TrEMBL record:
Name of the protein described by the UniProt record: Electron transfer flavoprotein alpha subunit
Similarity remark: Belongs to the ETF alpha-subunit/FixB family.
Cofactor(s) needed by this chain: FAD
Superkingdom field: Bacteria
Entry function: The electron transfer flavoprotein serves as a specific electron acceptor for other dehydrogenases. It transfers the electrons to the main respiratory chain via ETF-ubiquinone oxidoreductase (ETF dehydrogenase).
Domain Electron transfer flavoprotein alpha/beta-subunit N-terminal: 4-183
One annotated GO molecular function: electron transfer activity
Gene3D superfamilies: HUPs (3.40.50.620), TPP-binding domain (3.40.50.1220)
One Pfam family linked to the record: ETF
Amino acid sequence: MSDILVHIELTRSGHVGAAARGLLAAAARLGTPIALTVSDVPLATEAVARLGELGAVRVHAVTSDATQAILATPLVDALGAAVAAYAPAAVLLSGSADGREAAGRLAVRAGGVLLADVVDVAAHDGQIIAEHSVFGGSFTVHAVADGGLPIITVRQGAIDEQAPAAIPELLKADMPAPPGNQAAVLSFSPAPETSARPELRGAATVVSGGRGIGSEANFALVEQLADALGGAVGASRAAVDAGYIAQTAQVGQTGVTVAPQLYIALGISGAIQHRAGMQSSKTIVAINQDEDAPIFEVADLGIVGDVFTVVPQVIELLKNRT
């Protein structure tokens, strides 16, 4: 089987990032997953074991003092060296800000073909096929790389699988700081964790509220259902503009694009700008009093009713199940 190179993002504490599970599962469909990490300290034994649990057959751990001081270049250097060493059939990266930047720069260096914001991948007749969800999720497009190495960024949360566990071979490499002028990191301020809920962009379950929730105080109902399901909290732009919740929770064309396994829309009408950010979710449930609300056009399950009557009953059922 061909090697598939997967960039694994690490947290600042050195733990394997949440996107690794889906990326390695996608790689296992295409060939032999090779996990590439780049960090300023040697990769911890626990992280290597975790990557094995997630299906990495080989872990290529690059250590570079420059990773905390120089933007992107050390990662692109490490990816370029790994591509030269393994000649992979494809490179997979998370669709995060860092992943997107590294993928674009790697495509230029390696003469590859960039396939961005992919929601699924498959192998057929020796080709790697990337699936995109476009025009707000209204169309599905399949693309192949013609004449170059496929470099693929995968939308976070789009692939909810886990590859069979493996006992990974660990390869270590040191990389010197890149020469010349580089964009440098002069300082940074860690963003404090304000919630124990999963991050909205990569969450498997998202519960969102719209203007139909009525007030900031009522938005607690959205949060209660999210907590009962272990999900993240989102919102429509109308709810954000009304001051019910911070803009960071906004899902849609001018907010975060999500692709969870379950998306629950509460009191959301379903304007096209909102649907553009969530329509590729695997299962969509909508609760709204307006039976003509556009959100029902994309819902797998629609409930016409008052969210303040329906949702408390759902929460109670979930509590009874546990």
